[in-house]
Recover the amino acids of this structure.
C-alpha cells in the first residue's frame, strides 16, 4: 500500500520543478494523477514518464488563472476517474525581488493572477467536486516561507502567499465538517530549474542561502513533494487549517542577515 494508494489526485504546475517531482512521487505512492500546467508539451512529458514507470496519469494544458482552466482540470479528473480525492495546488509564479515602491500595477496583477486568484479558482472547483462526491478529500496549497515572514522574496508575491494562508483557514472553517481537509506548505529556497541559474552564476547566491537557512542548504523539489504527500495522505487525517513550513528552519530563526 502506498501513501496515496488509489487516490485521484490533481497536481497543478506539474510541468517542472516541485510539480514534476510531486508527480513522480505521488505516482510511486499509488496516486491516480491529473497533471496540469500552461505548458502542454512539458506536462505531457511528465505524464508520459509516469506512465512509462507503470503509473496512471493524464495531462491537461490549462491556465488556472481563469475559471474555465481551473474547472477543466477538475472535469478531467471526474471524466477520467469518476471522482476527486486530493489536490496539490502548486502552480505559481514570481518576479525577482524588488522594493515594493518600484513595482507597477501590472507587476501586482501578474503575480496575483496565478498565485492567489488562480489558486482560489482551483480550490473552488475542487471543493465543489469533493462536496458533490460526498467522500471528503484533502487539498494542499503551495505557499512560501515568504507568506509567513517578511523580508523573503518579492513583496507582491509575499502578499499573495499570505493570502493563501487565509484561504486555508477559510476553507477549513467552511468545509472541515464535510470531511475535506485543507492545508498549505511553505517552502523556503528550493533548488529547481527556475532558480538554477542563480546557483550556477557564482558562489554568492548559494552561500547566502546556506547562511540564512539553519539547515545550511536549499531544499530539493522532492523534499517539498514529500511534505505535500503526507498532508494529502490519510496519515495526516486530523491535520487541517495548517500552513506547514518546509524551510530548513528559516521561520524558526528568521535570520536574514
Amino acid at each position: 500500500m502506498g501513501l496515496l494508494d488509489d487516490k485521484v489526485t490533481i497536481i497543478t504546475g506539474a510541468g517542472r520543478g516541485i510539480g514534476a517531482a510531486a508527480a513522480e512521487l505521488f505516482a510511486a505512492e499509488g496516486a491516480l494523477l491529473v497533471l496540469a500546467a500552461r505548458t502542454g508539451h512539458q506536462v505531457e512529458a511528465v505524464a508520459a514518464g509516469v506512465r512509462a514507470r507503470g503509473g496512471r496519469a493524464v495531462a491537461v494544458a490549462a491556465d488556472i488563472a481563469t475559471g474555465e482552466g481551473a474547472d477543466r482540470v477538475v472535469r478531467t479528473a471526474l471524466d477520467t476517474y469518476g471522482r476527486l480525492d486530493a489536490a496539490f495546488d502548486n502552480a505559481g509564479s514570481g518576479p525577482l525581488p524588488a522594493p515594493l515602491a518600484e513595482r507597477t500595477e501590472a507587476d501586482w496583477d501578474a503575480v496575483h493572477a496565478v498565485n492567489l486568484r488562480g489558486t482560489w479558482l482551483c480550490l473552488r472547483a475542487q471543493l465543489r467536486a469533493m462536496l458533490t462526491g460526498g467522500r471528503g478529500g484533502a487539498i494542499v496549497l503551495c505557499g512560501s516561507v515568504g507568506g509567513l515572514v517578511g523580508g523573503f522574496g518579492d513583496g507582491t508575491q509575499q502578499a499573495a502567499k499570505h493570502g493563501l494562508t487565509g484561504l486555508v483557514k477559510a476553507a477549513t472553517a467552511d468545509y472541515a465538517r464535510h470531511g475535506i481537509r485543507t492545508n498549505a506548505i511553505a517552502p523556503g529556497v528550493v533548488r529547481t530549474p527556475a532558480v538554477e541559474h542563480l546557483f550556477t552564476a557564482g558562489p554568492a547566491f548559494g552561500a547566502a542561502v546556506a547562511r540564512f537557512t539553519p539547515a545550511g542548504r536549499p531544499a530539493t523539489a522532492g523534499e517539498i513533494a514529500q511534505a505535500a504527500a503526507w498532508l494529502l495522505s490519510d496519515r495526516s487525517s486530523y491535520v487541517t487549517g495548517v500552513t506547514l513550513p518546509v524551510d530548513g528552519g528559516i521561520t524558526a530563526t528568521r535570520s536574514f542577515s
Summary: Residues 105-133 form the longest helix (29 residues). The mean pLDDT is 94. Strands lie at 8-12, 32-37, 56-61, 86-89, 137-142, 180-187, 190-191, 219-220, 243-246.
